[in-house]
User: What shape does this take?
Amino acid sequence: MEISKCKSYKDLSNLVADVVEHILALPEPKLILPTGSTPIGLYKELVNRQLDWSTTTTFNLDEYIINPNHPQSYHSFMKKHLFDRINIYPNNCNFPNRNTQAYEDIISEVDLCILGIGSNGHIAFNEPGSSFDSVTRVVDLTEETIKDNSRFFPTIEDVPTQAITMGLKSIMSSKKIIIMANGKHKKNILEQAMYGDITEDIPASILQTHTNMEAFYCD
Ligand code: GLP
Assistant: This one.
């Protein structure tokens, strides 16, 4: 397992966009997509490339327990940064909802899953202590995650305390996984996840056991 060190954030975004472009050439591509600040450059690059998304199906990793029309919902994030700017069919864009079993049932044969990493090693909203066997479910967010994500909300009290997330087992069933990390503050946790013990205390460490996984990092 090696972490590919990219020259810049632009370079990181371009390298991951190259992989997505390759997957989009498949007849009916299926992608699992992340939110957060890290993938914004990737989505910008994908929009610029004017690719054909008409046969693509996407699954988002997670969503807050929040009105989907809220400006900080992940629905709104995806529309703003990607879905409203490409030729994907809105019906092909899936988000986890309270019917967690139904979501789990439609996630299959995913070609590529793209992940960010939280400062405590979470992926999607699988916080430390999440079972490696976890599937889509409602979760409580940790104080650290609420604090990290408060930068997107007017005050920390406005950050939802719960979310619906795809589980670690659901993520691991993807044929290929990419994890992206941007910034020195993510270096330690990414290295711990990729090179340290495989433990539920660092949910991203499960990725070490995937046979087709790549990690990209830039300072
Ligand atoms: C949120 C999301 C994660 C994301 C993480 C990191 O908690 N649920 O999927 O990986 O933030 O976000 P950022 O890229 O802004 O550091």
